[in-house]
Amino acid sequence: MRVKAWCALFGVGLMGCGGVEPELLEGAPEDATVHAQACAPGTATKVKDVLPPGTDLPPWRPSPSGLTNVQGTLYFAVNLFPNHSLLWKSDGTTAGTVPVKDFPAYGISGYRDLGGLIAVGHQLFFSVNDPTVGRELWVSDGTDAGTRLVADLTPGTASTSLSGLASVGGTLSFFRRDPATNGLLLWKSDGTAAGTVQVLALEPQASLASSVVLSSGLRVFILQDAVFGGTRVWRSDGTAAGTYAFTSLDAGEPQVRDMRSQGAFAVFALAEGGNTELWKTDGTAAGTARLETFGHDARLLGVLGSHVYVSYPTTDDRLKLARVSLAGGGKATVTTLANPFAGQEGAQPYVQDAKTAGNKLYLSVAIGSPGPAPRRVDLWGTDGTAAGTARLSEGLSTSDERASTLFDSGSGTLIFGSAGDSAGEEPWVTNGTAAGTARIADIQSMGGSNPNSFLRIGTRIFFVANGGPPGNALWSMPANVTCPALSAEAR
């Protein structure tokens, strides 16, 4: 019996119903039924409600948010309406999930907007609005007394524009704009006022197109300035002497897309005039190369094994997957994904997100509509072959404001949000096969819990979900979660 018939007969109970019947695609086996299955109750557990009853949340940001791992301790921000924020920490237990510092409301307008959380060693850096110093850099050691302003970089109530916060060379590395000239500056901080200093003034009118940190700890970033240097790739080890441009990509300013760190190297795409170039760099001129050019407006999906994968739409409203060797060249089509709405108004497919987990590449593929929201969003998985490409779920979020989360569990599986055959979006898991795709928990049976902000710490994955009043709470699940298929009799 197939899933939808089974669900219609028995209903969706505590164990839930999940799975879909995948569309056929070129080169895929026809017998690819996804059977109903779900994890046992209690697989996902609530750690703690962190919102007061009757809480009003700022409409522009979910809360809690910014889940960050600082040497095994979870930190996150709670922003309340209109301008009250709290920094929390958790050891994974209810009793050990506690506020670190309260940033109380002030006046009747403005937002505290605590965010930008990043771990550097044993310290947590973040930024928050303050009525006295504006939005500036703060640091915390996990105590109220040890949570403090680092420095008022732009004196007075004016705020400092901070971007590209990253851990480089054991210190916080970040970009800011010179308040006098608007030039781009590279700074670093060790968490003290004296140790928060400018590293280098970069190209005067440059814009930061993209930035990643390699596994070596080296920051690689791309600056663009049509007057001074065009598009160039820089590297920084956190020192002035170790910060410099090492190669030029283009005399103009093509669009830089999807720069991704892949451990010892990074891949990125340059798009201009309907063409897309795929590049690879290890932070040296000799190790920087254009891998291939596509005569399409292609989307970089990621790296799987020895290949880089891209997608681009066809003229008949389908989505083509292709790959290129990391050694350069070797361009080849993998497959073309089916679109049951092809030919209908606005039904062009596009990739919302892509993640590699285990030995599979996963894509959330949206089918457009005449309006702002997609008409359907499916999860696809591929091992890089046509036969190994399959549609795993059709119930991902169709909101025009947010997409379903895709998260690499670190245990060879993908965690994602999907409605499946149920009433709303819940956490699911897949190993890339029909039999290994299942709903983890039915947290909010009336409308879905909208899980998001997944973060692995040790053997647990923490996330935010809405299980009912007072609203979003902190939840967790085993990092190696798998859900066994129903028995043959149940199917």
UniProtKB/TrEMBL annotation:
Xref: PROSITE patterns: PROKAR_LIPOPROTEIN
Xref: InterPro entries: ELWxxDGT_rpt
Name of the protein in question: Hyalin
